[in-house]
Amino acid sequence: MHASPAPADPTVDDLAARLRLLPPSCGPVRLVGVDGHAGSGKSTFAGRLADALGGAPVLHLDDIATHEELFAWTPRLLDQVIEPLRRGESARYAPYDWSERGFGPARVLPAAPVIVVEGVGAGRRALRPYLARLMWMELPDEEAWARGRARDGAEQSDFWVGWVEAERRHFSEDPSRPFADLLIRPGHMGYEVLTGPATTPGSGPHLTQGDGPSAMC
Hints:
29% helix, alpha/beta, globular, single chain, Rossmann fold
């Protein structure tokens, strides 16, 4: 039995419509980054945004990272994904299998008009020059990590101990939130889209949604 698709969310639909109007940022592609703490809801939001964009491709940075390189994956991302897209070509990357601890078969990422890049570190300094917009999931670290631990269960508790330490170190050395154009605040009634720290009056089009969260999607 297939799950019913989530109802449309006017806030996400409005955001998607505005993102389509942005100039390309990486060759012909508008790369849209979704960053935030582990467990903050990046994957869910990215999926709903991609749906609102008519099925835009989503690159999950969990497919780029590895056990040995939780955050030291920039060269692989630039070589396998960013450079081909800059040339207007489809990218090919080998997603990492966290269970088998190795890379799987190559996957194609087409140079679509909009590509959503989601994961911790999507707003790192090496990637920001190629982003049309950077969004940050506005959820405190401890709350996000608690959600992530609950999601992954006790068998991943040891992994989470190392992850939290690595994530803290990463954001200390290479923070993303100060450079976010938009803050995405998840709530019981959907998402609220707020102006981010990087957006100042007159700096460009504001992609904010006015008065509050939309209906739950």
